[in-house]
Specification:
This protein has 9 helices and 7 strands. With about 190 residues, the chain is α/β, with parallel strands linked by helices. Helix 1 packs across helix 2 and helix 4 runs parallel beside helix 6.
């Protein structure tokens, strides 16, 4: 069985059961393999802008005999994706500027998803603002620390935007603050002490 890193496990936990997955910047294809293998998702499309990761993902998918469940696609953002090909969109492991660009440029495709799960490696505050401005509601947040790096992540759905009305909410995550997330506490201690 596929073992995921803590940061990928945390993303996997946010994916709604039974949803078809689209993983942008799939790298080794670990997330789709894990989710299909565990029965959490019926199928997945693993996409990456570079041929190298796609080849690696293909090898791993083959090793796990999942070729009929997981498709790989060379794609700049969502350009190689059709409308309604997935329910959960995961964009992880890249900078916040690129995350926003992919969502903006793939607006038509993005609209057809039920949920977005994002793990921007930078500009997290701008990503949260961007989501709210685009009419998304951040319904779940988490933060993981792995090898001394902090990985905040969020799940967003279309719909009534909850009042995300304080600068501090954008900066540190309303959900993280409200749940008194222990990793956020660690992050704040590192930042301020």
């Amino acid at each position: 069985n596929m073992q995921l890193s803590d940061r990928l496990s945390a993303i996997a936990a946010m994916v709604s059961k039974g949803n078809r997955l689209v993983d942008v910047g799939t790298d080794h294809g670990y997330l789709p393999i894990f989710l299909v293998e565990s029965g959490q998702v019926p199928s997945a499309i693993a996409m990456d802008i570079n041929q190298g990761p796609i080849e690696r993902a293909k090898e791993h998918i083959k090793e796990h005999n999942l070729e009929s469940y997981i498709t790989t696609r060379l794609s700049d953002g969502l350009t190689a994706l059709n409308i309604n090909e997935g329910d959960t969109l995961v964009i992880a492991g890249m900078g916040g500027g690129l995350v926003r660009k992919i969502i903006k440029e793939g607006e038509k495709q993005v609209k057809s998803f039920k949920e977005l799960i994002l793990q921007p490696q930078s500009e997290i505050e701008l990503v949260r603002k961007f989501l709210v401005e685009c009419g998304y509601r951040i319904v779940e947040e988490n933060m993981i620390v792995e090898d001394d790096k902090f990985y905040p992540m969020m799940k967003a759905i279309k719909g009534e935007v909850l009042p995300y009305n304080k600068t501090i909410f954008y900066k540190y995550g309303k959900g993280l603050l409200e749940s008194k997330n222990t990793v956020l506490k660690l992050f704040l201690e590192k930042e301020f002490i």
